[in-house]
Predict the structure.
Amino acid sequence: MNSLEALLALNQLPKIGPVRVRRMLEHFHTPMGILSASIDRLVRVDGIGPELARVIHQWQDYADPTSELREAKERNISIITHEDENYPTALRDAYDPPLLLYVWGELLPTDRHAISIVGSRRATSYGMQAAKQFSYQLAQAGFTIISGLARGIDTAAHEAAVAANGRTIAVIGSGLAQLFPAENLPLAQKIADGRGAVVSEFPLHMPPNKQTFPLRNRIVAAWGQAALVVECPAWSGSLITANLASEYGKPIFAVPGPIDLASSQGCHQLIRDGATLVFDPVHILDELSDLPFHAKSNSNLTAKTETPRATIELPAEEASVFSAVSEHEKSVDHIIEQSGLPVHVVMSTLMKLEMRGLVLASAGFRYRRR
């Protein structure tokens, strides 16, 4: 058994997390040493009682690293540890970094220029539009967008980064073979197919639960250079992510919302507590000193939304979709029919036009020109 297989086995054991494994490594030096240790030696480690010691000693009853490696290879998923050069530096330096990462897609050195975007699963149209605007323009500037692939703000952030031909990392709270929510599988596929990676620290078939999501959130918090909270109520898990990022020394940004909506109260509380209020992506770029090269050379990020409509020249597909949108709301089915383009082309193009400030989306997949 090699070091990776031993770490996979430890990662599959119940109630044995990264903190306990690191404590044991201080005693036994290698993952293989942990698995071969006697129960008497294991219980001498702080936090390892008789029950956990028996689980570790009888690890073959709980873990099958050989099968896990084989299935990961079949699914085109790579598994990386601290020893691998593409293990994210931001996570390596964190207090409680994952033992290993399952990566569907590809991690690049440029992903160190990352911003975490989080918010409510039950986002309003205002929140969704704000998430798309920030994510799209920050991705165009060269930042990798980190989020959790959840419904609402997370989904909007990932989709906008993909639409901007940028990079995005989706950190999920389940195993990659149990991707949650299931309806985001097509989005995850797009991300893995050249736009970034879908990442998990959990075994392939681990289902989501109340413990996995907070663990996921700590990775989102640690990975980005900064955290942006777009919209969340006062009881949102996004506030926990923001607080974790703050503990890591990351700048926290928050988008204000209508003062009479519960969905804005979390962001407003963050602002009261010292987060930076932002309503334009340029505000974030102005605050960060370690910018991607493209961001440093791109000082007119908002120019697209300020360009007079008469002077805009669009590529053929975008022009076709834009011409099918009028000043009065139309359903997406009507736009697809009128443009004559495939559904997936029309949907991605509408998002691009929305990010450029040319098209306004409303509930029920209806669109009109601004």
User: Anything to note?
Assistant: Residues 234 and 266 are 4 Å apart (CA to CA). The first strand starts at residue 78 and ends at 81. The two ends are 61 Å apart (CA to CA). Residues 297-311 have pLDDT under 50 and may be disordered.
